Structure formats: structure tokens, C-alpha cells
Amino acid sequence: MRLDNRVALVTGAAKGMGYDICLTLAREGADLALAARDVPPLEALKGEIEKLGRRALVVPCDVTDEGAVQQMVAKTTEAFGRIDILVNNAAYPRGNDRVPLPDLDEDIWREVLDIKLTGAFLACKHIVPLMVKQKWGRIVNISSIAGKRGSPNTAAYNAANFGIQGLTQSLAQEIARHGVTVNAVCPGTIATARMDVLGRGEGWQKHLERIPVGRAATDEEVAGLVAFLCSPAGAFINGQSINIDGGVVMW
Description:
The chain has helices at residues 16-27, 39-51, 66-80, 106-134, 155-175, 202-209, 219-230; strands at 7-11, 31-36, 56-60, 85-88, 137-142, 180-187, 241-244. By secondary structure, the protein is of the alpha/beta class. It has a single domain (7-244), classed as NAD(P)-binding Rossmann-like Domain (Rossmann fold, 3-Layer(aba) Sandwich).
């Protein structure tokens, strides 16, 4: 799955899946642009990537701001000369968006969709032309099995993830003939920092009981799937929303 001399830009890189996706891509040979609003963890990640012998660039960015996204793209291309891989991982932190729909604040609704869906749209809008011009690119949108089936009290999260998968399918058909593939990765229950709102008590155990393999996935397992989709081995996979959930959703 080597990605030697490829340049990857990962949003939401400061922690959790994003952090491990960056490390995995670096181990496979890629240089990294690390994007998030929280800068100190990015600096730490930069150091870890440089220990692996790869280059890394910290790019503070609010993905809901088109001007900031344009600057992110410009700084990355200035530093590396190209962008080969885009991983849209930025997401709203779990918590106060998990309420019955009548109790869901409109501002939170908009923020959930803006970070997850509009952020992915803006990054694709400004990076796709670069990939089309160079006739090679890999876009991986981090979605969720919540984009394949609804659940109570998660209207904004469901809507954002269903939207990500629609965006993935549409864009995949637009640009595949230019050597650019677009796919979504759909985690289920992951033992990552974003799940800390559940704690590791009864609620967490109920989640695990619904997983056929009997455990949560790790950030590293999700990162491995992302790396595979970006690698030569994944070149003929396009427009797919691939579950990584231990068998909870089987379509």
C-alpha cells in the first residue's frame, strides 16, 4: 500500500481518527498537511511524522470558512507543490447535538452540517481542480454507518452523514475519468476520543453488544482502510461508502 512521495491533506487531524490516519499515511510514505482549528496537537503530530522521516505542515483551518479553506490549499501547494490525497475528517464533537429533534438548537444543527458536509464540499471544491489537472487523486470522506440508517435523537448527525455519502457518489461520477477516485469510509462504534461522551460504562457496553464481532474498532483500523483506498491496491474502488463496523450494517 506504499504512498511514496504522495502529498496528503487531512482535515480534523488534531486527534482521534484524524491523528491516526495521518500517522498511517506517513508510515506508507506520504507527506502530510495537517489541518484543524486546534493547533497545539497538530504541532505534536508534526513531530511524530517527522520522526518517521516524512515532511509535515501544520495548517490551522476552519473548514466552514471558504477563505480559510482556500488559504489551506494555497499553503499546502506552496509547501509541497501538489495535493494527491484529501481526507475529509473534520466533524462536530459529539455531545449537545444528541437530543430529540424538537429540542435541537438551530445553531447546532447548522454547525453539525457546516463542519461535516459543507467543510467537505469546500475542500473538494478547491482541491479537485488540482487533482484533475495532475490526472491523479484520491478523496476519502469520513462518514459513518449513521449515513446509512437513522437513529433517534441524532437528526443532525444522520443528515450530515447521509449528505456526505451523496456528495461522494456524485463527485465520484464527475471526476473518475480524470484519474481521481472518491470514496467514503463509514465507521460504526470506534474506541476513539469522540466516543468519550458515552463513557465506558453501561451505554458503551450496549453499543458493543450490538456488534457481531463483539468489540469496537480502533482508530488504527479505520486508518488502515483509508490508506488502502489511497493506495494502488484501491485504484478501482470508486463511489463506495464502505462500512467498518464489525458487521452491524451489512449493505
